[in-house]
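Morning - S-adenosylmethionine inputs below, output right after.
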Amino acid sequence: MSGIYVHIPFCKSKCRYCDFTSFPDKIGFAESYMTCVYHEMAMRGEELKDYVFDTLYIGGGTPSVVDENYIAMLVAAAKKYFTLKDGAEITIEMNPGTVSAGKIALYKKCGINRFSVGLQSAVDAQLAEVGRCHSLNEFLACAKLLKGENFSVDVMIGLKGQTLADIGKTIEVVANSGASHISMYALTPEDGTPIYTDYLNG
Ligand SMILES: C[S@@+](CC[C@H](N)C(=O)[O-])C[C@H]1O[C@@H](n2cnc3c(N)ncnc32)[C@H](O)[C@@H]1O
Ligand code: SF4
């Protein structure tokens, strides 16, 4: 099985636990970064011409924070320079604080057929505690826009003050949201993040 991964290194803001490569203060570079991505795809088309790709995964960072036209051009470039299998799975990662009906409509139109949404917790106080840029209601609005689509939701365990009841509520909210999959991550205190400092402080 072969897949293409494209990284979009921008976010609206930085979550306190996250050490993924993403720059919330550099969204102004999105246009030049995306131009480099299209050039790299063009360059690699020849090198990878013998592959038939099953998947295209647009991850981050937060791909949904950049202008949706950049994403549509990325998918078009992947189709132009690489061989994608018929019905290939094309996924985009989204943060509920960065979506709109217009964005999701264009994602669907350009061929994206799988959506990965970060929720982490259904408890607003915990979202605020880890620095998420959205509320539970914004996740529910996003899930409504994705109704009928193949979407999965990321949730986290091990958050400060999180109880078993909070985890139960989170799973229930996601299960009732129309999601087809839940990815559950145990909080890892990554060296250099604000949460790592909290961890060292007990
Ligand atoms: C690139 S993000 C998903 C999309 C989007 N950026 C968002 O956060 O909504 C990937 C996922 O990794 C998980 N994650 C990131 N840092 C983590 C950490 N330190 N410990 C455990 N899970 C983490 C979160 O569940 C997050 O949703
Ligand atoms: S929005 Fe996602 S990628 Fe960005 S800082 Fe938060 S967890 Fe990391």
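Note: The pocket of S-adenosylmethionine (ligand 1) is lined by residues 17-18, 20, 59-60, 62, 93, 95, 118, 120, 154, 156, 185, 187-188, 190 (CB under 6 Å).

O.
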